[in-house]
Fold this sequence. Notes:
This protein is an alpha/beta fold and 129 residues long. The protein has helices at 14-26, 39-48, 69-79, 98-106, 120-128, and strands at 7-10, 33-36, 57-60, 88-93, 110-115. Strands 2-1-3-4-5 form a 5-stranded parallel sheet. The chain is globular, with a radius of gyration of 14 Å.
Amino acid sequence: MPNLKTIAVVDDDPIYIQALNNLFTSWKITNPVLFFENGKEALDFIRVKEASALPDILLLDLNMPVMNGWAFMENFATVAPHLNKNIRIYLVTSSIWEEDSKRAEKNPHIKELIVKPILQKKFREILAG
Length: 129
């Protein structure tokens, strides 16, 4: 596996979180993996941490309580110019709504929208990218 500094997962689904944990363990990924249950928790973390502690990859769900993925992205747009790090954000959602895809394509901070479940091949591409 490629050398990663940090992966962040922003998702409230415990089954999905467990599946990712199992995947990371099977791939022997030893780098830090951060888990946040909603966009507010992740945004609060990003706002107070130095660049070296920020994730390289952020896997963001759209439908969560407290702050959903779109609200996170709106707030992230105000924070991003002040970060000394480029965070690759992937929307990972069960939504197949075309409007979500169009909205993601227009957002310069979103690398890609991926419909759950993430196939292992796609996950490897994300980690290698």
